[in-house]
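Possible regression after last week's pipeline update?

I re-ran a chain I had predicted before the update to compare outputs. Posting the input and the new output here so someone can diff against the archived version. Not blocking, just want to make sure nothing changed silently.
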Amino acid sequence: MNSAREVLSNQDGPFKDLEKLVRKYAATEYRRPVADHTRNAFADAEQFIANFSAKGHAQSEGPSCAAPQPVILDSGCGTGESTQHLARRFPDYPVIGIDKSAIRLDKAGKAFDTAQSRGTEARNGDAQQNEPKNIFYVRAELIDFWRLALDKVTSGQWVIPYHALYYPNPWPKQSEAGRRFHLHPIFPTLLQLAQETELRTNWEIYAREFEQAAGIVKEIPGHTSTSLSTGAGDDNVVVKSVSCEAFEPEQPITAFERKYKNARQQLWRVLVHR
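New output (post-update):
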């Protein structure tokens, strides 16, 4: 018997003050102090990425260049199954799996074996592959980690081609709406991080809200606020395109996705490009 429950909410549509909140946070700068444990975790991730970059330069021909280091983020990675998938998808880039739960991260090393037993990461029928070496897991607060990562992006040290937000807690009660990423002061930072951000959820309202919030930022003239300014030229364009769609995964890449698929729940994803 499948135990996946559909999201229950006292909302029947997008949050009524969504536009007001999004515009407010787009015009201000989020200044809450970054937690020390996240600074330490970020420093560890930064060192892993630097070592990965150095190794790549050593193996490449010619001198190293000053181009930013590509980094893939898997935010709310849980036990790491999606991180393993992303490591296979982006084998030449460091993939950082971030979660605040020590219990879930303790299981992350087992995610590869679990995926292999299902054959979800097997190639050419061979399930006996080595665990990807481009993965690094960190225990950190997402909001703080993103702010530190944005400093790296805006300084030209990193570029984030892809940022995964797979099945975050949607906080379905209307009274909890401010905890949702797109209704929080962190939203402008989140949109600036990656060239492509993908959100997945089993709650259509959450997907539609995220799409609407990103669309509001896209339409803000000039993107001139402190929180939305990322440099010169095209980098000032925080959002170029947003899309929301129902989808059916051929091969689930998280435990949530598998559970929802097996329960025949409709899944949704939002893609944001900048």
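Follow-up from reviewer: compared with the archived run. The chain has one domain: 18-54+67-120+129-273. Marking as no regression found.
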